[in-house]
Amino acid sequence: MQLVSQPGIMRSLQTSTHPKLPSFLAVFFLFLSTSYAHNFLRRGSSLSVEDDSDILISPDKTFSCGFYGMGQNAYWFSIWFTNSRDRTVVWMANRDRPANGRGSRVSLRGDGAMVLTDVDGSIIWETNTTSTDARMAELLDTGNLVIKGPGDKILWQSFDSPTDTLLPNQLFTKNTNLISRLHGGSYASGYYSFFFDNDNVLRLKYDGPDISSIYWPIPYLDVFQNGRTNYNSSRIAVYDEMGHFVSSDRLQFIASDIGMSRIRRRLTMDYDGNLRLYSLNNDTGLWVTSWEALSQLCNVHGVCGRYAICVNTPEPKCSCPPGYEITELGNWNKGCKPLFNETLFQSQRVKFVELPHVDYYGFDLNYIQFSSIDACRDLCVGDYRCKAFSYRLTGLRSCYTKNELFNGYQSPGFEGKIYLKLPVTVETSQPTILNGTDPICQSDGSEIVIGSPSMYNISTKRMRWVYLYAFASAIGFIELLFVVSGWWFLFRKHGVPALAEDGYHVYGVVILELVKGIPLSNWDIQGGEEHESDLTGFVRMVESKTQRGEDSWIDEIVDPRLNGQFSRNQATTIVQLGISCVQEDRNKRPTMDLVVQALLECQY
Q1: Kind of pairing between the strands at 244-247 and 252-254
Q2: Which of 458, 138, 66, 151 is nearest to 296 (CA)?
């Protein structure tokens, strides 16, 4: 029997919960004993869960293979990075059926199959290599566990059945996918996956208890708008040791540290729904993110469950809308539940609660263009299936009625609103506060979700600060930074109401001054009636053109010294912020938290 002989390694390499030696000592002893280590298991030999020395080590000592433990009595036949601080697992044979801590064994049987058996002899997992000339299993420097036949022919390899991680030079094909862990404390299969879809495009999907939906690439754009192609049916992708990923659907990305030598990398479908490329810091043993599919985690579907709304703080936080409460404390996967009887709801009088900057993606009953808000409301009232409607005043004045409320998010970058359908008897005048944060907006006649000062950013806003950098050279971005940070600090730390009232207006004027490139601030400082009417006329002109769906106005008002070299989306965001801050009705002005977050989101 050819096994790894490492008597110095104790159970610390088997369980992260009750180690007999600290992990750094285990790694130290590992290197002391490498001269005795093997990377292969011969036919007829086995690895025992109870023998600490039964571990295969790749020749360059990057990877280890054996029983990986968590908790009291749960073990998985796995491959992990030897030198990462947490012994990061890259592959598991039995992720959804852990083996017992006593009596379990992995064997390369005489018939050529590698088999994992439990304490009672039952087969937990096995390869499809029976009736072959398999002679040995070998752990390669690539992290690939292979079963070899005569002439080193590969009869089976772990690279063909990835778990949640793809390693450099491991081919990703139409027959493979990456499935996330359920959560941080579990290796069981989760709800998120990375795969080639039937149209030959790489996608990320949430497949939960209630719904299944694609959320990356941007689901409301077509294949070519997302920079992909579906004409190549080979469905193959790979990345190299340098951190360059290429795919048959034209998806390409590079690691932020591309070109640096001797970096260990892994591409992992994480349990939070994001796909990330990691680089290992050899000095600390910790992983550093070198690329990620989504910059804002509220883009991930299923984060907060049914009815709930996701906000970024900057990490995603979940909040229930008015009329709803969390279903199970501490478990947002189950979302929110209504505070009213849904069965009797249809026979009751209803009202609509306005939720600015909020949308629920998908589950549209109807989609109507050039609709009035009254017509959209009537459409929802007349349909017993309708739970809310989304209305966007700008552009095509679009109306969407919703029969389910999933994938809720809140973002100052989203110009529409959700109107939530509730019984008139439901009290919604006192919205709950999420994590002790202040209301993001307050306005008469509307009731909104309370959430974090950091709002959600739709993925179409993923742009750099080109526009603000241009203003920095033409006007002076330092003024903007001082105004933003100064007022934000003052409001949050001291909460001076009177000062804040005047501050919003001054800040709005500064914002418009940046855009126009002329001293708009002088209008208010001089206090003349004519100047005040000019500012009011400017605001009314922009609001009127916006409501009519015109977008050429932004080119007309932006500082001509920029010669058109700016992002129109970013310019529009800043103008709208400035206008909202100089509103005569002070209740309609945004909080500084919302202003700060909207500016921060301009970079995406």
Answers
A1: antiparallel
A2: 458
CA 567 to the chain's CA centroid:
25
Q: How many helices (H) and strands (E) does the chain have?
A: 11, 35
* Predicted pLDDT of residue 557: 78
> Would you state the structure tokens that stand for residue 28, as one six-digit string?
């130290």
- The rounded average pLDDT for each run of 10 residues, N- to C-terminus, in the chain (604 residues) is 36 35 42 58 94 92 95 92 95 96 94 94 92 91 96 95 98 97 91 97 94 94 96 96 96 91 93 96 95 93 93 84 90 90 80 92 92 94 94 86 94 88 82 33 30 28 37 41 48 51 71 74 44 68 73 76 72 81 77 68 51
Query: Structure pTM?
Result: 0.68
Q: Which residues of 401-429 are buried (b: 16+ CB within 10 A; e: fewer)?
A: bbebbbbbbbbbbbbbbbbbbbbeebebe
Structure tokens at 538: 């400017």
Q: Which tokens hold the place of 604?
A: 């995406």
Three-state DSSP class for residue 6: coil
**Radius of gyration of the chain measured on its C-alpha atoms:** 29
Q: Specify whether the CB–CB gap between 79 and 64 falls below 8 A.
A: yes
Q: Residues near 167 by Cβ (< 8 Å), separated by ≥ 6? A: 90, 142, 143, 144, 159, 265, 266, 267
Whole-angstrom distance, CA of residue 328 vs CA of residue 151: 58
Distances (CA, A) of 361 to 198, 332, 390, 522, 574: 22, 17, 10, 44, 25
Structure tokens given for 79:
């491959």
Cα–Cα distance between 200 and 545 in angstroms, integer? Answer: 42
Tens digit of pLDDT for each residue in 580-601? 887 777 777 777 667 766 665 6
For 166-177, the pLDDT digits (tens) are 999 999 999 999
CA distance 111 to 99: 22
Instruction: At 572, list the tokens.
Output: 């529009």
Decide if 524 contacts 531 (C-beta within 8 A): yes
Helix H or strand E segment including 108: strand 105-108
Site of tokens 């992002």: 567
Of 439, 448, 420, residue with least CA distance to 340 = 420
The C-alpha angle 494, 499, 503, rounded to 5 degrees, equals: 110
Task: With H, G, I as helix, E, B as strand and everything else as coil, classify residue 61.
Answer: coil
Q: CA 409, CA 403: separation in Å to the nearest integer?
A: 17
Q: Which two tokens stand for residue 89?
A: 């697992």
